[in-house]
Amino acid sequence: MTTNQAGRVALVTGGSRGIGAATARALADEGLNVAIGYSASAEKADEVVRDLRRRGVRAVAYRADQSDADQVTALVDTVATEFGRLDVLVNNAGVSINGRVDDPEADTTAFDHQIAVNLGGVVAAIRAATRVLGRGGRIITVGSTLAARAGFPGVADYAATKAAVTGYSRGAAQDLASREITVNVVQVGAVATDMNPPVGDYADRQRAAVALGRFGTPEEIAAGIVFLASPGASFVTGSVLTIDGGFLA
């Protein structure tokens, strides 16, 4: 563990697995105390917390439904209260529900839930964070290259949520600039996670569209998030950092 940001506090939503867990570990390696939010797997969340504590930082997991704005607000407030501050918010929690817009049997309830999590949860977290972040605070949201290039059928609803997050983040960056709070998006491509396993026909189609010809790792995404959370990124706001192996090249 380094001590570049020792004493600072980060909240990573969706921190029990995948990109969220990798980000939590990477931030801990920079010396930050880390809270993670999770919605379902307490066991996985506890495992991540134990790993973070072994790295010498304070770590706690909190359960919150990202589709419920009140729970998201309470999560942010609880972290700020129990840790005494909040310096970095990483909006990583998300769901992916695929389906064509012309499918008469599409599960519109699931699509509505996706909007509530991927967009509503991010908006609620950012609004709550603005009340507790001090000068130099960082807000980073995990987006998707599908916001810029759908590339495949069946992703319209998911792509829309990620495009909306990018637009919201740019607007928030303008609103918070006077407080030196930066707001950015890490736009990711095909990454090997539980939500996007690197096997099967859809995975093969993704891999074929990537210039580097492979899936990224959660740790490669976490590296970009750590940069945007750092003091070195103080002049980066309203930006989209694309980490996609060349999908958009």
Automatic annotation (TrEMBL):
<keyword id="KW-0560">Oxidoreductase</keyword>
<dbReference type="InterPro" id="IPR002347">
    <property type="entry name" value="SDR_fam"/>
</dbReference>
<dbReference type="Pfam" id="PF13561">
    <property type="entry name" value="adh_short_C2"/>
</dbReference>
<dbReference type="InterPro" id="IPR036291">
    <property type="entry name" value="NAD(P)-bd_dom_sf"/>
</dbReference>
<dbReference type="GO" id="GO:0004316">
    <property type="term" value="F:3-oxoacyl-[acyl-carrier-protein] reductase (NADPH) activity"/>
</dbReference>
<comment type="similarity">
    <text>Belongs to the short-chain dehydrogenases/reductases (SDR) family.</text>
</comment>
<protein>
    <submittedName>
        <fullName>3-oxoacyl-[acyl-carrier-protein] reductase FabG</fullName>
        <ecNumber>1.1.1.100</ecNumber>
    </submittedName>
</protein>
